[in-house]
Amino acid sequence: MQQKKAQVFNFKKIHSLQNIAPLLIAAAAKNCICSRCRYINSTEYIFCTNCGHPLKDEAANILYHVRTKQRKELLKKSEQAVQTARVILYILSGFFLVGIAFLFGELENRFIVAFVFVTVSALFLVLARLSLSKPFTAMIAAFVIILTFSTIAVFGEFTHAFTTVQGVYSIAISMVLIYFLLKGIQGAYKSDLIKEEMEIY
Question: What is the pTM of this model?
Answer without folding.
Answer: 0.66
